[in-house]
Every structure is written in structure tokens, then in C-alpha cells.
């Protein structure tokens, strides 16, 4: 791909990021859509998967920040916002509309007495759009749109008051994202704004960051592994957050930042030999994000009897692993098919 805005190892990291995001749902959905944590081994499996993959949306926020200050900053603001309008907002609107229709007991409105039904549908659609409620994972898109709107201000602050940008990037250590199911709260915006700002800082000083990671590779690895152990133990101890602060979310922010630094450093060193399948996932990452739960839903539903009766950890692990593979592969296949038939317009339909 010959594109001034294309950086192969960051593109590859986007592919790894979407695997982690899908994996965050691949095991939790089969567990909780068909039952509860009703055994010690199942609880341990869930805690391991949460330790590895919970909060992986942070990767997308950091990547967005890196790409802005490393490559997109050369664009004018109108061009920047036009790109986000076409490539993020438009597919979000299209897919929210389609999913709202799928979930709506809707009949043709051709009589005056049916008009209130149409009005209710419109309200439901607008509510889904505003709150990101069309599907369980769509909450991130309204957050992402806020990050994009805030970009000019964040960039101006970073250029004039670097110390303020550093404080913003550190805010997620003391202000945590809100827990399920109330994802859209001010504290979540602060949390992801910090991650986005961190990415912007990394992007502006990217070469220096890479040298720093190479120099302190061992300490960064140790801190990342320590945070992973802490996350697991906090889940195991059934830690409960207090107010707007959660020690688990602090540890996750540090862990995901550590993985970002380590993986981007590793992929940069392997750039000449990055596998094509990983680059393909990077290309279709946004489409996979939008579509993967639609793939998981019928798969889990078809196995609901098995999941209800055989709640052994190895059974659910196997089902979850296949869930992950199917969700990624089918999403890529659907996105590729849409792209073949719609060409460049596929971006405004499914994001890739």
C-alpha cells in the first residue's frame, strides 16, 4: 500500500488491537448470555480473559492519538473532520439504523393510526445513536466522536502547554471509566480523553519514544506483567470500585499502555516481515469492530443448550476460541464482500 498516511507497524498493531477487543467479548458473552460464574474453574477462566483483554478499547484510543500527531496533523481541520465524518460517523449511523430496524417489531406504516409507531421508532433510533445503545459495544463511538471534536483544543494545548497535556494523559490513573452498563459518563470521557492525549504525545515524539522503549525494555515489561498480575488478583478478590475511581482501571491503563509500547516497538523492528493476515486485520479493523457482535449472537444462540448444560471451563474456553475466530473471519468476509460491490463507498457503510 503506497500511502503517505500508512505506517506498516502501526497498521499491524491495529490488527492486534482488534483481536484483543473481539477477545474481550469472545468468552464473556458465552458465559453471561447463558448463565453465571457458577464454578471456581469458570470464574478463573473469566478472570484470566478479563486480565488479558478487558479495556482493550484503550488501544484504539491510543492508536488514534498516535496517528493524528504523527501523520494526520498535516491535514487541514476541514479535511480532518471530513474524514471522520465519512469514515466514522457515517458507518455508525448506517449500522445503528440497520440494527435498530432488526431489533424493532416494525410493520409498514401506511395508515394515520400507525404514525405514533413511526415516531417511536425515530426516537428509539436517535436514542441509540446518541447513547451508542444499538449494540453493547457501540458505546465507544460517541466517545470517539467527542475525542475527535476535542482534537483541535488538545493539539493547541500540546503545542503551547506541554505540561497540561501530560496531566491530561495521566488523568486515567485517578479518574476511571464508568462500569457496565453505564459506559457513557463524564468519567469515561475523561478516561479515554487521557488515552487519546497519550497517543498524541507518543505520535509527536515517536522516534524518542521508540528509543526510550528500547533502552528500558526490561523495566517496561516487568511493570506491564506486574499490572497484569494485579488485575487478576483484584478480580479474584472481587474488588469493588469506589465512586469515580477504580484500582483495576488504573492497572488496566498502565497495562495497556505498556503493551502498546512493547508491541509497537516489536512490530517496528519486524516491519519488513509483518504477516499479510495481520495487515488485513488492520485494514478491516473498524469493520470488525462494528460487525463482530452480530456474528457472535447467532453462534452463541445456536449453542445455548450446550452452554447451559455443560458449564465446564474447557468447554467454554473451546467455544470462546471458536467464537473469536468466527467473529473475526466472518466480519472480514462480509466487509470484503461489501467492499467488492460498493468500492470506495464501503467506508461510509461499514467503516473499511
TrEMBL record:
The chain crosses the membrane at residues 12-33, 53-73, 85-107, 136-155, 162-180, 186-209, 216-237, 243-264, 276-301, 313-338. The keyword Metal-binding does not apply. It is a multi-pass membrane protein. One of its GO terms (cellular component) is plasma membrane. Its main location: membrane. GO terms for molecular function: O-acetyltransferase activity. This is Acyltransferase 3 domain-containing protein. It comes from Planctobacterium marinum.
